[in-house]
Amino acid sequence: MNRVYNFSAGPSMLPLSVLEKAQKELVCYGESGMSVMEMSHRSKMYEEIIFKAEADLRQLMNIPENYKVLFLQGGASMQFAQVPLNLLSAYQTGKADYINSGNFANLAMKEAKRYGDIKEVASSKAQGYSQIPDWDEKKFRADADYFYICMNNTIYGTRFTKLPQTGNVPLVADISSCILSQEYDITKFGIAFAGAQKNVGPAGVTIVIIRDDLLGHALDITPTMLNYQVMAEKDSMYNTPPTYGIYMAGLTFEYLLSQGGVKAMEQRNIEKARILYDFLDESKLFHNPVRKCDRSLMNATFVTGDADKDAAFVKAATAAGFVNLKGHRSVGGMRASIYNAMPEEGIVKLVAFMKQFEADNK
Protein backbone atom coordinates (compact mmCIF):
# COMPACT_ATOMS: atom_id res chain seq x y z
CA MET A 1 0.00 0.00 0.00
CA ASN A 2 1.31 3.46 -0.88
CA ARG A 3 1.68 5.94 1.99
CA VAL A 4 -0.62 8.95 1.90
CA TYR A 5 0.25 12.58 2.49
CA ASN A 6 -0.86 12.91 6.11
CA PHE A 7 -1.76 16.48 7.11
CA SER A 8 -2.98 15.53 10.59
CA ALA A 9 -2.41 18.06 13.37
CA GLY A 10 -1.38 15.26 15.71
CA PRO A 11 -0.61 12.47 16.05
CA SER A 12 1.06 13.38 12.84
CA MET A 13 3.36 12.28 10.07
CA LEU A 14 6.80 10.90 11.01
CA PRO A 15 9.89 10.74 8.79
CA LEU A 16 9.78 7.53 6.75
CA SER A 17 13.41 6.71 7.54
CA VAL A 18 12.62 6.92 11.26
CA LEU A 19 9.72 4.50 10.88
CA GLU A 20 11.83 2.14 8.81
CA LYS A 21 14.64 2.11 11.38
CA ALA A 22 12.14 1.48 14.17
CA GLN A 23 10.65 -1.33 12.10
CA LYS A 24 14.07 -2.90 11.64
CA GLU A 25 14.80 -2.72 15.37
CA LEU A 26 11.30 -3.53 16.58
CA VAL A 27 11.85 -7.18 17.50
CA CYS A 28 15.50 -6.96 18.47
CA TYR A 29 17.38 -3.77 19.38
CA GLY A 30 21.07 -4.12 18.62
CA GLU A 31 22.43 -7.26 20.25
CA SER A 32 20.08 -7.05 23.23
CA GLY A 33 17.89 -9.93 22.12
CA MET A 34 14.77 -7.92 22.90
CA SER A 35 12.66 -5.02 21.77
CA VAL A 36 13.07 -1.60 23.36
CA MET A 37 9.45 -2.10 24.48
CA GLU A 38 10.61 -5.06 26.59
CA MET A 39 13.68 -3.35 28.02
CA SER A 40 14.05 -2.34 31.67
CA HIS A 41 14.35 1.41 32.02
CA ARG A 42 16.93 0.71 34.74
CA SER A 43 19.20 -1.18 32.35
CA LYS A 44 22.46 0.27 31.07
CA MET A 45 21.29 -0.21 27.48
CA TYR A 46 18.14 1.85 28.00
CA GLU A 47 20.05 4.54 29.87
CA GLU A 48 22.19 4.91 26.77
CA ILE A 49 19.03 5.42 24.69
CA ILE A 50 17.46 8.09 26.91
CA PHE A 51 20.71 9.95 27.62
CA LYS A 52 21.59 10.04 23.92
CA ALA A 53 18.11 11.37 23.11
CA GLU A 54 18.66 14.15 25.63
CA ALA A 55 22.14 14.96 24.30
CA ASP A 56 20.86 15.12 20.72
CA LEU A 57 17.96 17.37 21.70
CA ARG A 58 20.34 19.65 23.57
CA GLN A 59 22.47 19.91 20.44
CA LEU A 60 19.47 20.56 18.18
CA MET A 61 18.04 23.31 20.39
CA ASN A 62 21.31 24.62 21.82
CA ILE A 63 20.05 24.02 25.37
CA PRO A 64 22.45 25.41 28.01
CA GLU A 65 23.69 23.35 30.95
CA ASN A 66 21.62 25.37 33.42
CA TYR A 67 18.45 23.90 31.92
CA LYS A 68 17.11 20.43 32.67
CA VAL A 69 15.50 18.31 29.96
CA LEU A 70 12.70 16.09 31.18
CA PHE A 71 10.81 13.35 29.34
CA LEU A 72 7.44 13.14 31.07
CA GLN A 73 3.93 11.78 30.51
CA GLY A 74 0.45 13.24 30.51
CA GLY A 75 0.71 15.24 27.30
CA ALA A 76 1.08 19.00 27.05
CA SER A 77 -2.34 19.29 28.69
CA MET A 78 -0.87 17.94 31.92
CA GLN A 79 1.43 20.94 31.89
CA PHE A 80 -1.59 23.22 32.21
CA ALA A 81 -1.66 22.12 35.86
CA GLN A 82 1.98 21.16 36.36
CA VAL A 83 3.27 24.64 35.50
CA PRO A 84 1.21 26.53 38.11
CA LEU A 85 1.69 23.80 40.70
CA ASN A 86 5.45 24.20 40.38
CA LEU A 87 5.80 27.93 39.76
CA LEU A 88 3.06 29.80 41.59
CA SER A 89 5.21 30.01 44.70
CA ALA A 90 8.49 30.83 42.92
CA TYR A 91 8.33 34.43 44.14
CA GLN A 92 5.71 33.86 46.85
CA THR A 93 3.03 35.94 45.09
CA GLY A 94 0.86 33.25 43.55
CA LYS A 95 0.35 35.41 40.45
CA ALA A 96 0.69 34.59 36.76
CA ASP A 97 -0.12 36.47 33.54
CA TYR A 98 -1.50 34.73 30.44
CA ILE A 99 -1.94 35.73 26.81
CA ASN A 100 -5.08 34.05 25.49
CA SER A 101 -4.24 33.30 21.86
CA GLY A 102 -6.35 30.20 21.27
CA ASN A 103 -8.07 27.13 22.64
CA PHE A 104 -5.06 25.59 24.39
CA ALA A 105 -3.88 28.86 25.93
CA ASN A 106 -7.43 29.40 27.16
CA LEU A 107 -7.61 25.91 28.67
CA ALA A 108 -4.23 26.40 30.34
CA MET A 109 -5.40 29.68 31.84
CA LYS A 110 -8.60 28.12 33.17
CA GLU A 111 -6.66 25.28 34.78
CA ALA A 112 -4.17 27.66 36.39
CA LYS A 113 -6.99 29.61 38.02
CA ARG A 114 -7.51 26.62 40.30
CA TYR A 115 -4.19 27.38 41.98
CA GLY A 116 -3.59 31.12 42.02
CA ASP A 117 -4.23 34.70 40.91
CA ILE A 118 -4.30 34.43 37.12
CA LYS A 119 -4.66 37.49 34.89
CA GLU A 120 -5.51 37.52 31.21
CA VAL A 121 -3.34 40.36 29.90
CA ALA A 122 -4.34 40.04 26.23
CA SER A 123 -6.81 38.03 24.17
CA SER A 124 -7.82 37.56 20.54
CA LYS A 125 -10.98 35.61 21.37
CA ALA A 126 -13.13 38.47 20.05
CA GLN A 127 -11.37 38.08 16.68
CA GLY A 128 -12.06 34.34 16.61
CA TYR A 129 -8.39 33.75 17.46
CA SER A 130 -7.51 34.70 13.88
CA GLN A 131 -4.47 36.62 15.10
CA ILE A 132 -1.98 36.75 17.91
CA PRO A 133 -3.35 39.25 20.45
CA ASP A 134 -1.88 42.73 20.50
CA TRP A 135 -0.56 43.32 23.99
CA ASP A 136 0.31 46.24 26.21
CA GLU A 137 3.35 45.47 28.36
CA LYS A 138 2.18 48.05 30.90
CA LYS A 139 -0.46 45.51 31.88
CA PHE A 140 2.15 42.87 32.76
CA ARG A 141 2.68 42.37 36.49
CA ALA A 142 6.31 42.71 37.55
CA ASP A 143 5.72 40.53 40.61
CA ALA A 144 4.11 37.62 38.74
CA ASP A 145 5.62 34.19 39.30
CA TYR A 146 5.53 33.49 35.56
CA PHE A 147 4.12 34.67 32.21
CA TYR A 148 2.46 32.14 29.87
CA ILE A 149 2.05 31.90 26.09
CA CYS A 150 1.26 29.22 23.52
CA MET A 151 3.82 29.81 20.76
CA ASN A 152 1.89 28.18 17.92
CA ASN A 153 -1.87 27.77 17.90
CA THR A 154 -2.58 24.51 16.12
CA ILE A 155 -6.33 24.91 15.74
CA TYR A 156 -6.30 28.46 14.36
CA GLY A 157 -3.01 28.50 12.45
CA THR A 158 -1.33 31.40 14.25
CA ARG A 159 2.09 31.82 15.85
CA PHE A 160 4.09 34.31 17.88
CA THR A 161 6.76 35.91 15.70
CA LYS A 162 8.04 38.03 18.59
CA LEU A 163 8.07 37.43 22.32
CA PRO A 164 6.49 39.58 25.01
CA GLN A 165 9.12 41.34 27.11
CA THR A 166 8.51 40.11 30.65
CA GLY A 167 11.59 41.44 32.45
CA ASN A 168 12.55 39.21 35.37
CA VAL A 169 9.32 37.24 35.19
CA PRO A 170 10.01 33.77 33.72
CA LEU A 171 8.37 33.20 30.34
CA VAL A 172 6.64 29.82 30.00
CA ALA A 173 5.81 28.62 26.49
CA ASP A 174 3.82 25.73 25.09
CA ILE A 175 5.82 24.86 21.98
CA SER A 176 4.04 21.59 21.18
CA SER A 177 3.33 22.29 17.52
CA CYS A 178 6.45 24.26 16.67
CA ILE A 179 9.27 22.53 18.57
CA LEU A 180 12.23 21.83 16.26
CA SER A 181 10.51 23.60 13.34
CA GLN A 182 12.48 26.83 13.69
CA GLU A 183 15.30 28.14 15.82
CA TYR A 184 14.43 29.55 19.25
CA ASP A 185 16.75 31.05 21.85
CA ILE A 186 15.87 28.79 24.76
CA THR A 187 17.42 31.23 27.23
CA LYS A 188 14.44 33.53 26.58
CA PHE A 189 12.23 31.01 28.37
CA GLY A 190 12.01 29.79 31.94
CA ILE A 191 10.13 26.71 30.74
CA ALA A 192 9.35 25.44 27.26
CA PHE A 193 7.30 22.27 26.91
CA ALA A 194 5.88 20.16 24.10
CA GLY A 195 3.81 17.09 23.48
CA ALA A 196 5.77 14.82 21.17
CA GLN A 197 2.98 13.85 18.78
CA LYS A 198 3.34 16.73 16.34
CA ASN A 199 7.01 17.20 15.43
CA VAL A 200 8.91 14.67 17.52
CA GLY A 201 7.37 11.21 17.73
CA PRO A 202 4.34 9.19 18.80
CA ALA A 203 1.92 10.39 21.44
CA GLY A 204 2.86 9.62 25.03
CA VAL A 205 5.99 11.70 25.64
CA THR A 206 6.05 15.27 26.89
CA ILE A 207 9.31 17.22 26.71
CA VAL A 208 9.89 19.85 29.39
CA ILE A 209 12.91 22.16 29.25
CA ILE A 210 13.22 24.03 32.54
CA ARG A 211 15.77 26.45 33.96
CA ASP A 212 17.46 25.17 37.11
CA ASP A 213 16.39 28.05 39.35
CA LEU A 214 12.72 27.23 38.73
CA LEU A 215 13.06 23.83 40.37
CA GLY A 216 12.20 23.35 44.01
CA HIS A 217 9.28 25.77 44.32
CA ALA A 218 6.35 23.37 44.06
CA LEU A 219 3.23 24.10 46.06
CA ASP A 220 2.67 21.78 49.02
CA ILE A 221 -0.34 20.24 47.29
CA THR A 222 1.75 19.20 44.25
CA PRO A 223 1.63 15.43 43.73
CA THR A 224 5.06 13.81 43.75
CA MET A 225 4.66 12.71 40.13
CA LEU A 226 4.05 16.32 39.06
CA ASN A 227 7.00 17.83 40.90
CA TYR A 228 9.61 18.96 38.36
CA GLN A 229 12.41 18.71 40.94
CA VAL A 230 11.62 15.06 41.69
CA MET A 231 11.72 14.19 38.00
CA ALA A 232 14.89 16.21 37.39
CA GLU A 233 16.72 14.53 40.26
CA LYS A 234 15.81 11.10 38.83
CA ASP A 235 16.68 11.92 35.20
CA SER A 236 13.00 11.52 34.20
CA MET A 237 13.00 8.00 35.63
CA TYR A 238 11.40 8.39 39.06
CA ASN A 239 8.98 5.79 37.72
CA THR A 240 8.85 3.95 34.41
CA PRO A 241 8.95 6.60 31.66
CA PRO A 242 7.35 6.15 28.21
CA THR A 243 10.37 4.15 27.10
CA TYR A 244 9.43 3.37 23.52
CA GLY A 245 8.17 6.87 22.83
CA ILE A 246 11.48 8.30 24.06
CA TYR A 247 13.35 5.86 21.83
CA MET A 248 11.25 7.04 18.84
CA ALA A 249 11.91 10.67 19.77
CA GLY A 250 15.62 9.86 19.84
CA LEU A 251 15.43 8.43 16.31
CA THR A 252 13.76 11.64 15.16
CA PHE A 253 16.49 13.74 16.78
CA GLU A 254 19.11 11.66 14.94
CA TYR A 255 17.23 12.20 11.68
CA LEU A 256 17.05 15.98 12.19
CA LEU A 257 20.76 16.17 12.93
CA SER A 258 21.47 14.24 9.73
CA GLN A 259 19.36 16.76 7.80
CA GLY A 260 21.33 19.77 9.00
CA GLY A 261 19.53 20.46 12.26
CA VAL A 262 16.83 22.95 13.13
CA LYS A 263 18.26 25.75 11.00
CA ALA A 264 17.94 23.62 7.87
CA MET A 265 14.42 22.52 8.83
CA GLU A 266 13.38 26.12 9.39
CA GLN A 267 14.39 27.07 5.85
CA ARG A 268 12.46 24.11 4.46
CA ASN A 269 9.42 24.98 6.53
CA ILE A 270 9.47 28.61 5.40
CA GLU A 271 9.50 27.47 1.78
CA LYS A 272 6.74 24.88 2.28
CA ALA A 273 4.52 27.45 3.97
CA ARG A 274 5.25 30.02 1.25
CA ILE A 275 4.08 27.66 -1.48
CA LEU A 276 0.78 27.03 0.26
CA TYR A 277 0.09 30.58 1.44
CA ASP A 278 0.99 32.07 -1.96
CA PHE A 279 -1.67 29.88 -3.53
CA LEU A 280 -4.24 30.73 -0.85
CA ASP A 281 -3.61 34.45 -1.39
CA GLU A 282 -4.20 34.08 -5.14
CA SER A 283 -7.14 31.68 -4.95
CA LYS A 284 -10.68 32.85 -5.65
CA LEU A 285 -12.14 29.81 -3.84
CA PHE A 286 -9.94 29.17 -0.82
CA HIS A 287 -9.16 31.74 1.85
CA ASN A 288 -6.82 31.84 4.83
CA PRO A 289 -8.49 33.77 7.69
CA VAL A 290 -5.33 34.53 9.68
CA ARG A 291 -3.70 37.96 9.89
CA LYS A 292 -0.72 37.62 7.56
CA CYS A 293 1.96 38.62 10.07
CA ASP A 294 0.73 35.91 12.46
CA ARG A 295 0.51 32.96 10.08
CA SER A 296 1.83 29.65 11.38
CA LEU A 297 4.59 27.77 9.59
CA MET A 298 3.15 24.49 10.87
CA ASN A 299 -0.65 24.72 10.58
CA ALA A 300 -2.28 26.47 7.63
CA THR A 301 -6.05 26.92 7.97
CA PHE A 302 -8.33 27.68 5.03
CA VAL A 303 -12.00 27.78 4.07
CA THR A 304 -14.17 28.19 1.00
CA GLY A 305 -16.94 30.03 2.82
CA ASP A 306 -19.39 27.22 2.04
CA ALA A 307 -19.60 24.33 4.53
CA ASP A 308 -20.88 21.90 1.90
CA LYS A 309 -18.04 22.79 -0.46
CA ASP A 310 -15.55 22.40 2.40
CA ALA A 311 -16.88 18.91 3.03
CA ALA A 312 -16.74 18.06 -0.67
CA PHE A 313 -13.14 19.20 -0.82
CA VAL A 314 -12.10 17.12 2.20
CA LYS A 315 -13.81 14.04 0.74
CA ALA A 316 -12.18 14.48 -2.67
CA ALA A 317 -8.77 15.19 -1.15
CA THR A 318 -8.96 12.07 1.00
CA ALA A 319 -9.78 9.95 -2.03
CA ALA A 320 -6.75 11.46 -3.78
CA GLY A 321 -4.38 10.58 -0.92
CA PHE A 322 -4.33 13.90 0.96
CA VAL A 323 -5.71 12.89 4.34
CA ASN A 324 -6.68 14.57 7.61
CA LEU A 325 -7.34 17.98 6.05
CA LYS A 326 -10.61 18.52 7.91
CA GLY A 327 -10.36 21.49 10.26
CA HIS A 328 -10.76 21.22 14.02
CA ARG A 329 -14.35 20.51 15.05
CA SER A 330 -14.54 23.87 16.86
CA VAL A 331 -13.84 25.97 13.75
CA GLY A 332 -14.59 23.79 10.72
CA GLY A 333 -13.03 24.44 7.35
CA MET A 334 -9.71 22.84 6.50
CA ARG A 335 -6.26 22.69 8.02
CA ALA A 336 -2.99 21.46 6.54
CA SER A 337 -0.46 20.63 9.23
CA ILE A 338 2.90 20.70 7.51
CA TYR A 339 5.34 19.60 10.19
CA ASN A 340 9.00 18.74 9.60
CA ALA A 341 8.22 15.28 8.23
CA MET A 342 6.00 16.62 5.44
CA PRO A 343 8.13 16.87 2.28
CA GLU A 344 7.86 19.87 -0.02
CA GLU A 345 6.57 17.47 -2.65
CA GLY A 346 3.46 16.94 -0.52
CA ILE A 347 2.71 20.67 -0.50
CA VAL A 348 3.31 21.05 -4.23
CA LYS A 349 0.95 18.17 -5.00
CA LEU A 350 -1.67 19.44 -2.56
CA VAL A 351 -1.63 22.88 -4.20
CA ALA A 352 -1.96 21.27 -7.63
CA PHE A 353 -4.97 19.31 -6.37
CA MET A 354 -6.52 22.46 -4.87
CA LYS A 355 -6.09 24.32 -8.14
CA GLN A 356 -7.86 21.55 -10.00
CA PHE A 357 -10.65 21.44 -7.43
CA GLU A 358 -11.07 25.20 -7.79
CA ALA A 359 -11.22 24.93 -11.58
CA ASP A 360 -13.88 22.22 -11.30
CA ASN A 361 -15.97 24.20 -8.83
CA LYS A 362 -16.21 27.66 -10.31
Overview of this protein structure:
The protein is an alpha/beta fold. It folds into 2 domains: 16-258, Aspartate Aminotransferase, domain 2; 262-360, Aspartate Aminotransferase, domain 1 (Alpha-Beta Complex). 35% of the residues lie in helices and 15% in strands. It has 9 helices and 13 strands. A 7-stranded mixed sheet has the order 2-10-9-8-5-3-4. Strands 1-12 form a two-stranded parallel ribbon. Strand 3 (95-100), helix 4 and strand 4 (117-123) form a beta-alpha-beta unit. Helix 1 (16-25) crosses helix 6 (243-258), helix 2 crosses helix 6 (243-258) and helix 3 (75-87) packs parallel to helix 4. The radius of gyration is 21 Å and the shape is globular.
Main sheet record = 7 strands, mixed
Q: How far apart are the first and last residues' alpha carbons, in Å?
A: 34 Å
User: Can you count the helices?
Assistant: 9
User: What is the radius of gyration?
Assistant: 21 Å
SS content category = alpha/beta
Q: Report the order of strands and helices.
A: EHHEHEHEEEEEEEHHHEHEEH
What is the helical fraction, as a range of percent? 25-40%
| Whole-number mean pLDDT | 96
